[in-house]
Each structure stands twice: as C-alpha cells, then as structure tokens.
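Question thread 4412

I'm putting together a teaching handout and wanted feedback from people who do this every day. The idea is simple: show students a protein as raw sequence, then show them the structure tokens that encode its fold, then repeat with a second protein so they can compare. Below is the first pair exactly as I plan to print it.
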Amino acid sequence: MKKKFSNILTILFLIFVFSISLLYVFLPKKDFSQTEKRYLAGFPKMSFTTLTDGSFEEGFEEFLADQTPMRTFFVSVNAYFEYLKGNNGSEGVYLGKDGWLFEKPFDRENKFDLNAGKISRFAKTTDKPVSVMIIPTKGYIYGEYLPKNSLNYYDGDYIKSLPSKLEGVNVVDVTSAFLNEKGNAQLYYKTDHHWTSAGAFTAYKALCDSLGLEAADESLYKKEEYGSFRGTSYSTSCYTLTKPDVITLWRNSKTNGRAKVSIEDSPTPDVYDNMFFPEALETEDKYVVFLNGNHGIERIETGNKGGKLLLIKDSFAHCAVPFLAENYSEIIMVDLRYYKKPVSELLSDDISEILFLYGIDTFAESGDIILR
C-alpha cells in the first residue's frame, strides 16, 4: 500500500513537471508584470561569450523565474508562506491590521540632511519665497495598524528638524494636520504609499494657512469613487488577498474645465484640457489618473487668478495640484528624477513662489535633488 501511494505521488509530480514544461513552451511570454509593476526577463542572448562567461546561465535562471506559468500565484503563495514563518516585511512591506500595507521605514543612514542642505543653499540664491512640505509615511501616521515587532518610524523627528536646517524657508507642518484629521478621513491608500485625495486636501489647507491663502471649501468638489485600486505596496508585497482601495477624484468642474495641461518632455508638448486622465482608471496603474503620472516638466494653466508656482516634487504632488490650482494662475511641476536642465532657467518665467513637495521616503533616499 505504501509503495502504491509512493508511485501515485511520483506520477502526479511527473505530470505536474511535464505540464509546467508545456506551459513554458506554449504560453506567450510577458514583457511586463502589471502586478509587480516591473519588466520581466526575456530569453537571454546565446553566444560563445555568454555561454563561457556564465552570463547566459544567469540570464536563463532569471528568465525561468520571471516567466514561470502562474507566476503571480506562486509569488503570492511565497509571500504568505514567509509571513506565516514570521518574516513579515521580507519584501520591504509589512502586512498590518485591517488590510493596511506599510513600506518599511527608510534607513537611518540617508540623504535627508544632504537634501535639506541643498534646498537651503538654493533658497539663498533667489528672492522668490520658498516653502517646503514633506509628507510623513502612513506607517508614522497610522502606526496603530502596524504589526508587532515592526521597525520604528522616525518621521516626526526628521520633519521637526527641518526649520533649523532651512533658515529663511517656510516649512509647512503637515504632520500635525494629519494626526488631527486621521480619525475623520482615510488620508492614505491601504495598498499604496501615496496619500488619498482627502490627504492631499488636508495638506492643501495646511499650506494655505501657512501662506495666508484662502483654501477652497470642500463643498465645491464632486467626489467620484472608483474601486479596484491596488497600488505599489500591494505590487511589491504580493499579498494578493488584500482588499483593493477605492480611488476618489475630487472634481471642481469650474476650475478643471478651464485648465490647460502641457507635458513638455519633448520639443513638441502634449496638450490636454483636463487635470484628470480617466482612461488610466481602466489600467492597473490607476494613480496615473492624476496629471498623467510622472513627467520631467508639466505646465498647468488654471484659468484662475493668482501668481505662478514652481512646484519641485515627487509623485505625491499629482493628487494635490487640482487643489493648488484654486489659488494660482499657473503651476509648473518639475520632477528632478527626469528633468535634467538647470532649475534656475525656470525662475525667469515670472515665478512668484517656489514649493518643494516630497514624500519623506523619497526626500530621504533621493540622489536626484540637484538644484542649480
């Protein structure tokens, strides 16, 4: 009986291996994983050099790993297996309470002070008012949902140190506003590292208070909800049993109807008449609905009264710009990860104010904040 059972297991294993081999051969190969939001390895180039130096073998192993049939299923099984072993956060993302996914805190050895110093020196070279708004992580704001034995988040200490590092620069206190508001609204997505529109609106009001501007009233906005949003935290961790988020667009039809958006990454700009790109809601990367995602430079002519704002930013800004548009006639968004021209060239463009808006993770880790 034992031998018969062993034979059955062997046959089933051989059938499984044979089936997987057939799927490897006949299933179409994918170039990009929507779940993991990364490009997958293709079949490596075969030559005498690659065969003898070991690069073909290495590339073939990556190809097999990336093109495994039912890859998402197996990656997800491995994620939960590691979680059950006690390795919560093994892929850099904690599985927290109530469906919250948290990126691990950034390393204590980082570029936070270096980047603050760059802004301080830059501010001394211009007569334009400069403001800085650094957004804390959801791990710091919603720490009560973190799993046990998670690493500590020191966002508050870093952000509180900014005024002493940025003499003459207006530092906007978003952290206090978030801690006061988090019981009234969900300020971050559970499956993504970005803030929600409610979070961006809370920060917008804090900025207006800091600058002496009148913030638009929440009643002006029509809120449109779209489900099935799974963000970068979900993609990185592959905790696929996590419920998706709802992504909400706050539309002020009066302001948005007048807006003109120019994406100037190429000599011939792409021009649009909307700050929202609803076609992105039909894709995996739904956050692109805000300002069409990451670009080196975008100009938003709002049709409203106000000055011109130079906004040096990361992707947190995309969700906030429809609110900022209420108070400025034009916003020039610059992402230094992609914009490689001197920022000083833009200061001659009748700029009235400069705002640095970054998530603290990016600010602490980026080597792209080059100001000249």
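The second pair follows. I'd like the answer to focus on this one:
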Amino acid sequence: MKKVAILGIGQTKVDEHWDKSLRELGGEAAFLAMQDAGVEKVDALYVGNMLSPMVSGQNQLGTFFGDWVGLWKQEAVKIEAACGSGAAAFRSALMAVSAGDVESALVVGVEKMTDKAGKDVTAALATAADSDYEVEQGVSFVGINALVMRRYMHEFGWKHEDFAPFSINSHANAMHNPYARLHEKITVEKFERSSMVATPINLLDASPVGDGAAAVIIVPAEKVMRRPRVVVSASAAATDSIAVHSRKDPMFLNAAYLSSKQAYEMAGVKPEDIDVFELHDAFSIMAALSLEATGFAERGQGVRLGLENQIGVSGKIPVCTRGGLKARGHPVGATGMYQIVEVVQQLRGECDATQVDGASIGMAQNIGGSGATILTHILSKEN
C-alpha cells in the first residue's frame, strides 16, 4: 500500500449562502484545493454529502460536481454516512490512492442546509436515526442526545454548567477562524441563560447548521515536495447500532473506541502522542463521550478535561482549535472534511492565534448519527 499525503486544501466560510447554489459552494472549495495543490486535473472525485436529495433536490453529486469543475470521464461518486459523510468520502479516496487504483483524488465535503425551513431540515437530519424505533416514536435527533446527556449527568453526578467549557473553548477559537460561522465569545453565565432546546440541551450546547464545503487533494506521498508534508498515518472506521437504545451502554461511544484503537495501532501512536484533536462536538455531551472513548479521559470524566482547562490550545489535548462544530458550524456532510482541513492547517502551522505549538500529529474524528458510524483519521507532519 502506498503512503498518501495531502497536496492541497480548500474551504468556504460556513454561513447562510443565499447567493450560492450547491454546485457553486462545493465547486469553490474544490477549486481552492486545486489551486493550493497546483493542479488542474485529478484522476477521481469523491463527494461527501448527506442531505442533497432532501434539501437541494439533487442526487448523483459525483457527476454533478465533476461536470462543474471540469473533471469529465474520471470516476466520480457520492459517499453518504449521515453526518460522517465527509470523512467516509475521504476514507474511500484514501483507499483508492493507497491501493494504486488512482494517482490523485479530489475529496469534497459539501452541504447546503439553509434553503429549507427549519422543520424540514430537522426532519431530514432525523433520517440519521432509526426510522422505525426512534423517529417513528417522535424522538428528534437533538432529543436523542438530550436523553443520553440527562442519563450521563445522573450516572456521574455532573451539573449542566459543567459542560460549559466545551462551548466556551470552541467559541473562543472560532474568533480567530475567518471560515467559522459564529464569531462571538461566550461565558458560563451566558451558557446557562441560553434558551432550552431539549432538556438538558440548550442552544449553546448545540452546533448550528449552515452551508459550507471543504476539500482536499490527496496523492502518493512521494509526489509532495512541499514541506512540511502532511501524510495520512491512519484511517479507521467502525459502527454501532443505529438506535441508541439498542446499545449495551448508551453512554459509551463504542465505535469511537474501536476506530481510534485501530487508528492508534496503525499509526504507531498512543493518545498522549496526539497534539491536536478535532472532535465531533455536535452537542457538548458528544465532546465528553468522544474524549472518553478515545482514551483521553476515564469513563465519566471527560467533562473534567474542560473544567481543568486541558482542552485549550495550550492544554493537555487541544480540541476544536478552529471552532469545532459548535462555533465553526456543522454543515453535516461537509463537517468531516472541515476537520481534515483544520488538522492540515495545524500541522502546516497556519492557525495563527489558535496554533498548537509544535503540532506534528493530529487526529480528526467524524460521527454519523448518534455514534452509529464513526471514522477516525490520524495525520502526521514530515519535515
């Protein structure tokens, strides 16, 4: 298998892009990645997206974007894994390049979510849950996470305000990211006063949706001359039951544990070797559960890392250094690719005020559904 490196990156600001169509949004990120890579053509195109048939009325996104960016005749496909679609597309492209089937691949994660009414988007997002045993019973996606958070607080004795550092950290970091949707610092007091969405999850526990696209170009590592060179050291994926109530332990992300364990072994590293972790903080409870499942905290103690200021850029394990889903925004099918792009920025040393000093190994973890599909990637810097 060939070692694979990331040659170019591109992203758009997460926002309400009323002036851009789905093709323009994804195309912008693709062109920026190609410009950064210094290429005009690639051998294959992989698109990560969840909602385009329901929100934009468009399927067959591989050919849709290939046609727009001038990649005719090449392989071009769409990959869907709910909110994990971006990382799933990246993994598919990675396997193709590392196997030698193609010499270069463009991966685009794209989502346009603000063209429909909120209730319609909520219904579309619910398709990531179990339609028979969750959605049919009237439980929304945020409601499922609220049930998990309530049980977690009961089991381990945490108060709602104890989760505030996760949101505070993400908002503070987003202030320095021009591509982030929310540029507003928050406090514990503001966190606690925020409007309730589904008890105990309030507005500042939850990530905002938005329109956005992020892209990378990957090639065999020997073709990348720029330094530092960012290589893909590990790629792993695992699944759990789609319905949370079917799990042996609803408060443990087993797919995160399995995929990160495999990724650590593949990369030859341990949790303490990770310099930056772009985790999937769709809700503050997911940040805590991710830290526990990936080995950064003991069971039930993920919240403590935030309370002890260990998740900031100078902490034990810097997370969400560009704002995370919470403040950069969560254009669901694109989120996994934003995470990859942001880790590359850290390893290149391009993050200015939120740069993690000496970052050489970064991890990105993208979650589909309420922990049903989880993909973990580890990237490393080679000088």
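Top answer:
Good format. For the second protein you could add a caption like this: The chain is about 35% helix and 20% strand. Residues 288 and 302 are 4 Å apart (CA to CA).
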